[in-house]
Write the structure tokens for this entry.
Amino acid sequence: MNPTPLRFRPVIKQTIWGGRRLGETLGKPIGDQGDYAESWEVVDHGADQSIVVGGDAAGKSLQQLVHQHADWLLGKHRADSTGQFPLLLKYLDCNRVLSVQVHPDDQYGAQMPVPDRGKTEAWYIVASEPDSLIYAGLKSGVDRDALSKAVADGQTEKVLHSFHPAAGDVVFIPAGTVHALGAGLLVAEIQQSSNTTFRLFDWNRVGADGNPRELHVQQSLEVSDYQSGPVAARSSDQSAAGWQELVRCDKFVLQALENGAATISGDDQFHILTVPSGTARVGDTQLSAGDSVLLPAAMQQTDVSVDPDSTLLAMHLP
């Protein structure tokens, strides 16, 4: 197949905490309701599949590409493939505060009744209201006993580190980090392709049936990281030209291009690109806010550029 940027039809998720900004700000195909919470841009996880739109691979799922064209798609990482694309890119519109959650690591995930990867993730803040909060990490000195007591007393918020994020901030959430996204946030998230989530606290809310939602307190206490403490936001130098590395871990690398031009591909590995704001170009492909593409490993080195007041995010395996 011709190695050109792959565009996918997004997988749209609706929940009570969603809003309308996925459509109004990012141009996603939403309907008349106001509860559009997530747009999964690049996904190969069970029934949730990215489907290629246009080009030689039109109609194929990402899973089919992994199975049928591993060399072309994954390049030097094909030998590490488990038969599943390893990363998942999504946008989230948080119209209300999400539950307090924690994700296990790969070792714990592999031992679950339905095995899955662990889940390390990073957030890029696309938009934030003045009173929006991010909860990331435990306050210094909070151990398992203190967290357990806070949850039992309905006071989990008191032991969580929180801060007001700004658009352009990046928050790295390794597996084991207790966290929650607050109301008013529009976020791009890169993560391991996993759905291993334990709900620790849900703000003492009840569901539509009048009952509290299910919590996973014991599992959360088992996998929580009690050593790292508070998580701080990271930010790029918005005056710098070329790629800036925002996160590097053993699961993915996240970079941003905010000024000028650069190159990408030609390194025998795939790259995921998305534009959280503004406009950008990848070779001859024009991208607008909310657009995402996957560059297969077979692509040759390609020029990329951003227009003023624009951001292009790039993600690949380390």
